[in-house]
Write a structure and sequence with these properties.
The complex is a heterotrimer of chains A (323), B (499) and C (140). With 323 residues, chain A is an alpha/beta fold. Chain A folds into two domains: 31-122 and 251-322, D-Maltodextrin-Binding Protein, domain 2; 125-225, D-Maltodextrin-Binding Protein, domain 2 (3-Layer(aba) Sandwich), CATH 3.40.190.10. Chain A is 43% helix and 19% strand. In chain A, the strands form two sheets. In chain A, strands 1, 2, 3, 4, 7, 8 and 9 form a seven-stranded mixed sheet that branches. In chain A, helix 2 links the parallel strand 1 and strand 2. In chain A, helix 4 (95-104) runs parallel beside helix 11. Chain B is globular. Chain B has 499 residues and is an all-alpha fold. Chain B has one domain. Chain C has two domains: 2-54; 66-129, no CATH class. Chain C has helices spanning 2-22, 36-54, 66-86, 88-100, 108-129. In chain C, helix 1 runs antiparallel to helix 2 (36-54). The longest helix of chain C has 22 residues, at 108-129. The chains are: A alpha/beta (323), B mainly alpha (499), C mainly alpha (140). Chains in contact: A-B, B-C. Chains B and C meet through helix 3, helix 9, helix 10, helix 19 and helix 20 of B and helix 1, helix 2, helix 3, helix 4 and helix 5 of C.
């Protein structure tokens, strides 16, 4: 009898131990929601859906996208900042929500304190292109042209104040002594008509926004603002190679959880993200969108990266050109 | 011809036929439900297309897009609730027709006009693409500015009897349109510190409130006194005089749709607005408009359907999305490694012409699908109103919620419903407010962009033939509107004197 | 009297918008900036309201009817307040009942049955069919 009780107790004990370990090992037990703080169908949304598809396979539970657009990403980000930190509500954060907006206005969340970073998913670098009517075959010739007296007649476009295209253009002006005029649009898509028509002569934006037009020969690529060349455009030199030092910038897209999410959940998610780099399907799909998968070494490394980006943007946006 | 045969042979493949049918069916359903738009349905279907052949996927997404345009007029006519932004203008005459017991005729005419507009749009798409591409690229900020000025002058005739009230409404609409972050300086205008207002207000919740909610509040009292709708098929067929009235308006509407549709800066909403105003201008009895004029339904509906078809021209031939929905289409193609742009038609003729052929099939399907449905829709109006209107209130709420998965848009709908109600009771018309809301932001955006590009030089506005012609027509129209009545009275006086 | 009130209200709103727009001016003050268009529009509203107050034109006007106004507002407000807290079905029911009270008939039982069926239809269409991320009923 006693043996029986002991046996039962032991069984119950092991069962309880197993189940507590199991609870986290079994994460996720139900479907996970990734909030995309932009409306469906945009660039961020499509990338997020590729990632969600991959995570669904890795985690064995459906990972679904919920679009919460508005306020340039502010609304959806705020929702996740206040969500229950149980690993079932995640955020697809981007440069705009975590590096730019907090430097421009009161956003109602803290980009560092309110989130537990998981991993970056995609980093896109800025590609500098010109309309074929511009007489510059490479970056050196472009700088010679834009810094001459006739350079002030040229325009560059952006998808609005504080976007990467705007910052790239103003920094280019500052660095090369040029005076290209900034022409803002409602978004990168809106700018394209004038870029393709040649009313905008110089355009610097993330690869995905431009790639189709480079592939089709409508626009001429000059340089990539990155430390290394892109696999998607192996013939395009980096800015450093083309003679423009310290001119590297771009946008990032990554997965974050609300602050307070258990470490093992974060670790599980990070582990699921790491296999992305070797997944042929993910590589293929992202390449079609003009991106490549990138994964942070650890969640902490991603946290450092976000902090670094926030500081870089703060320093840049404080310059007089942006006031 | 060879191209079209290639396209037809591809589009007639069974999986493409199914995709086409599924797309237009879902599109029609989505269009009928107020609030929820083609965007929502397309983004829902997008992941599904990852697994499909690129043509099959895009055929389905496109079907949803133009199907929604067909269905969108249904709620506008029956309930004064615009289903999509470009159907808002259909409310002005479609709803009065329904109130007169002619809902069946209005829906029938809409279906026919949509088919005619869609067909003309496809003809332009398959034959004139290179020309249209050149025109679209020729439109810079100065040209857009001139075109929008022309629109403004043309649509100024829409509204009630008191010009002061109409003008006040246009200004108010324009002011509401300035809400949000200014794209040029990043200044937050009238946002009151709310993140929800940073992107400004969108057209559908504003129009639903102004037209739909205010209409419900107005009609609750008269709940018993509704006109009974006949639902026999014969009663839906337009009379011979109706046919005569809509023939030219449909063609003119289609032409305007083909002009505005491919311009990324305007699109179907402006096309419908312009067509409506144009018919009112040309009509010998402009006073019938707003009171159930059948031309006021046929013309904008032909126009917006022509515009959604021709909107594919810059998307496919240049890779330039005119609307957010078109941006999704580009995303759907790119995820399969198909790059929209000048080379696509050459490199992927099967895809391009298959898509064009699927538009033909889709439009035919919509015609076959919609005509039998008219009876069903109209019979909805015979539901006792005390049961119908609470249901509509809920549909408006859920539909607006689904726009951004937030209650924010419902708040906007309610607010504009109240504003619309008070203004309508006081003899102000909601239509001019909507016009100001649509056109003013476009005018400001292009004006300021042209000033930037021209480095502040006014002559930049007259630097191209397009803008000079559009501005000249605007001035002529304005002059005839201002001095026309004066001239007429002078002439009449002279005649009196001479007799 | 109410006619004057509408013009007056419009004029006051215009004036408020005008003063707010003064704050949108960029430093220079030359050319067209963020303030220009709002200033023109709101200024125009003030002017035209003054005209409206001075020159009366007889167009159809009528008073405000409170009951339908309150019922429909309450219906929409109830939906806004309850959809995320209690779920789609309770929100639909509450909203429909409030809207129903806007008219004079009071046969609430059959209406409730109808509302319940309608609520399920709405839930199955939007939640199941269209993937709207709202629960049917949420715990309290």
């Amino acid at each position: 009898m006693l043996r029986k009780i002991c046996g039962l107790a032991l069984a119950a004990l092991t069962a309880s131990v197993v189940s507590t370990v199991g609870a986290s090992a079994q994460y996720p037990e139900r479907s996970v929601t990734i909030v995309v703080p932009f409306s469906a169908g945009g660039n961020t949304d499509v990338i997020a859906r590729v990632i969600a598809d991959h995570l669904t396979e890795e985690l064995g539970q459906p990972v679904v996208i919920e679009n919460r657009g508005g306020g340039g990403g502010t609304i959806g980000t705020r929702v996740v900042a206040k969500a229950k930190p149980d690993g079932y509500t995640l955020l697809f954060g981007v440069t705009g929500t975590h590096s730019v907006n907090p430097n421009l206005r009161e956003v109602g969340y803290d980009p560092l304190q309110d989130f537990a970073p998981v991993s970056v998913a995609v980093i896109s670098s800025v590609l500098m292109v010109v309309h074929p009517s511009v007489e510059a075959q490479n970056l050196e010739e472009l700088i010679a042209l834009t810094s001459s007296s006739s350079g002030s007649r040229l325009n560059f476009a952006s998808g609005g104040v504080g976007t990467v295209a705007h910052v790239a253009g103003e920094l280019f002006n500052e660095r090369t002594g040029s005076s290209l005029a900034h022409i803002p649009y409602k978004g990168a898509g809106d700018a394209l008509n004038d870029v393709v028509a040649g009313r905008i002569q110089v355009y610097m934006n993330n690869i995905p926004a431009i790639l189709p037009h480079v592939t089709s020969g409508t626009l001429r690529p000059l340089a990539l603002a990155s430390a290394t060349r892109s696999k998607l455009l192996p013939d395009v030199p980096t800015t450093q190679e083309a003679g423009l030092e310290d001119f590297e910038m771009g946008s990032w897209y990554g997965l974050l959880a609300p602050a307070g999410t258990p470490d093992d959940v974060i670790a599980r998610l990070h582990e699921a993200m790491t296999t992305m780099v070797d997944s042929e399907k993910v590589n293929e799909r992202l390449a079609a969108l003009g991106s490549e998968p990138t994964v942070s070494e650890s969640p902490e490394a991603f946290g450092e990266y976000i902090k670094g980006q926030l500081d870089w943007w703060k320093e840049v946006l404080d310059r007089p050109a942006f006031h | 011809m060879e191209n079209l045969l290639l396209g037809l042979s591809t589009a007639m493949m069974i999986e493409n036929l199914i995709a086409c049918f599924a797309g237009v069916f879902l599109g029609t359903a989505i269009g009928v439900i107020p609030g929820i738009g083609a965007m929502a349905a397309i983004s829902l279907l997008l992941p599904l297309t990852f697994a499909l052949d690129p043509l099959t996927g895009i055929v389905m997404l496109a079907g949803v897009y133009y199907g929604a345009e067909y269905g969108g007029s249904t709620a506008s006519i029956l309930l004064n609730l615009p289903g999509t932004p470009s159907n808002a203008i259909t409310c002005i005459d479609g709803y009065p027709m329904a109130q007169q017991g002619r809902a069946g005729v209005a829906l029938f005419v809409t279906t026919i006009a949509s088919f005619v507009g869609g067909s003309i749009g496809i003809l332009v798409l398959s034959n004139l693409t290179p020309l249209i591409v050149d025109v679209a690229l020729a439109f810079g900020p100065a040209e857009y500015f001139a075109l929008i000025v022309l629109c403004f002058v043309a649509v100024s005739a829409i509204g009630g009897a008191d010009p002061k009230k109409n003008f006040a409404m246009i200004l108010l609409g324009g002011l509401i349109g300035t809400i949000g972050i200014d794209i040029y300086d990043g200044v937050e205008r009238y946002t009151f510190g709310s993140a929800h207002l940073l992107d400004g207000l969108s057209l559908v919740p504003v129009a639903m409130g102004l037209f739909g909610v205010s209409e419900i509040i107005l009609s609750v009292k008269t709940a018993g006194a509704k006109v009974r709708q006949s639902i026999s098929f014969r009663s839906m067929i337009p009379s011979r005089s109706d046919w005569r009235r809509i023939f030219w308006p449909m063609l003119r509407g289609s032409a305007a749709g083909c002009l505005f549709g491919p311009l990324p800066g305007t699109g179907p909403s402006v096309a419908a607005l312009f067509s409506y105003a144009n018919e009112k201008k040309l009509s010998r009895q402009p006073e019938r408009f707003g009171k159930g004029a059948i031309e006021g339904v046929a013309s904008p509906e032909a126009s917006n359907n022509a515009a959604v078809q021709t909107a594919f021209i810059p998307t496919l031939a240049l890779g330039i999305p005119g609307t957010p929905t078109m941006a999704i289409m580009i995303g759907a193609l790119m995820i399969h490694g198909v790059v929209p742009g000048p080379l696509m038609i050459e490199n992927e003729p099967r895809l391009f012409w298959g898509l064009v052929a699927s538009f033909w099939i889709g439009n035919l399907l919509l015609l076959v699908l919609n005509i039998p449905l008219i009876g069903l829709w109209v019979s909805l109006l015979n539901i006792p109103y005390r049961y119908l209107y609470p249901s509509i209130v809920v549909l408006i709420c859920v539909g607006s919620y689904s726009i951004a998965n937030s209650v924010q848009d419902i708040v906007v709908v309610l607010l504009f419903g109240l504003i619309g109600y008070v203004l309508r009771r006081q003899g102000f018309m909601p239509a001019p407010l909507l016009i100001g809301f649509v056109l003013c932001p476009m005018l400001e955006e292009n004006l300021r962009r042209a000033m930037l590009m021209g480095r502040g030089d006014i002559s930049y506005f007259f630097s191209s033939t397009i803008s000079v012609v559009a501005l000249a027509i605007s001035i002529l129209l304005l002059a005839s509107a201002l001095f026309g009545p004066l001239l007429k009275s002078v002439l009449i006086r002279r005649r009196r004197v001479s007799s | 009297m109410t006619r004057n009130a509408t013009w007056l209200l419009l004029g006051i709103c215009g004036a408020a918008a005008f003063f707010m727009a003064l704050g949108y001016q960029a430093g220079g003050g030359s050319g067209i900036d963020s303030a220009t268009v709002p200033l023109i529009l709101s200024g125009g509203i003030v002017l035209i309201s003054l005209l409206g107050l001075t020159f009366k034109q007889d167009t159809e006007t009528s008073g405000i009817e409170l009951r339908p106004l309150l019922a429909i507002s309450a219906a929409v407000l109830l939906f806004i307040l309850s959809v995320e807290r209690f779920g789609l079905i309770p929100a639909t029911l509450a909203s429909m009942v409030a809207a129903y009270l806007g008219q004079s008939e009071r046969r609430i039982a059959p209406f409730l049955v109808y509302a319940l069926i309608f609520a399920f239809a709405v839930w199955s269409l939007f939640s199941m069919g269209l993937g709207l991320p709202v629960k049917a009923i949420r715990g309290f």
